[in-house]
Design brief:
- The chain is mainly α and about 190 residues long.
- About 55% of the residues lie in helices and about 5% in strands.
- It contains ten helices and three strands; from the N terminus they run H-H-H-H-H-H-H-H-E-H-H-E-E.
- The chain has helices at about 5-10, 15-25, 35-45, 50-60, 70-80, 90-95, 95-100, 105-120, 130-135, 140-160, and strands at about 125-130, 170, 175-180.
- A hairpin with a 2-residue loop joins strand 2 (about 170) and strand 3.
- The model has no long low-confidence stretch (mean pLDDT about 85).
């Protein structure tokens, strides 16, 4: 069965009309993919790639039809994130997200990995929260990704409070950025 996007492409009927027909059960089509619909709307609005969207693009060889028209914008967002797989956390580190809220050893493992990654940055370069998050979650299998993302949102606050990360982040214009921590001479 064709998707709503395929029908819209062939007929030129506006997508809002097709959605209304589908909702009224007057149109037979594959159910719309909510994630792709939200992804397309955020690209249309000019938003930056979210962590979930960047991981979705990273895990696919090509973009689905719903996202083809935003290819340049998506490529630019992925370019801003740099070579993700070069710095991606091994699965053993990414697994620590699961228990980091309750287990200090798991939180310490994440903090050591993040600190080592940030220590490799040139002095003065700040990277976004998405930059760090995508690298941590890049090797998480797709079946575990939603749960890992949900846990990571909570654990990232704990990570920023960890002593190893104390001087490695700040807020800029309402967003969290990470930077190479200054070495303290004591």
């Amino acid at each position: 069965m064709p998707s709503l996007h395929d029908i819209q492409k062939r007929t030129g009927v506006p997508m809002r009309h097709l959605r209304a027909l589908y909702a009224a059960d007057l149109l037979k089509a594959d159910p719309p993919d909510e994630f792709l619909e939200t992804f397309a709307r955020s690209m249309q609005s000019g938003h930056a790639l979210s962590v979930a969207q960047a991981l979705y693009v990273l895990s696919r060889d090509d973009l689905p039809a719903e996202l083809q028209r935003y290819g340049e914008r998506i490529d630019a967002g992925m370019y801003d994130l740099g070579d993700i797989m070069k710095d991606a956390a091994p699965w053993s580190i990414a697994q620590a997200i699961e228990g980091a809220a309750e287990n200090p050893d798991d939180l310490n493992k994440l903090a050591q990995w993040a600190r080592a990654l940030l220590d490799g940055l040139p002095r003065g370069r700040a990277v976004s929260h998405q930059w760090l998050s995508v690298r941590l979650l890049a090797n998480v299998p797709a079946v575990h990704r939603d749960r890992a993302l949900t846990r990571w949102h909570r654990v990232s606050r704990l990570l920023r409070d960890h002593p190893l990360m104390a001087f490695a982040w700040r807020r800029e214009h309402g967003k969290i950025v990470y930077l190479k921590p200054k070495q303290l001479d004591i």
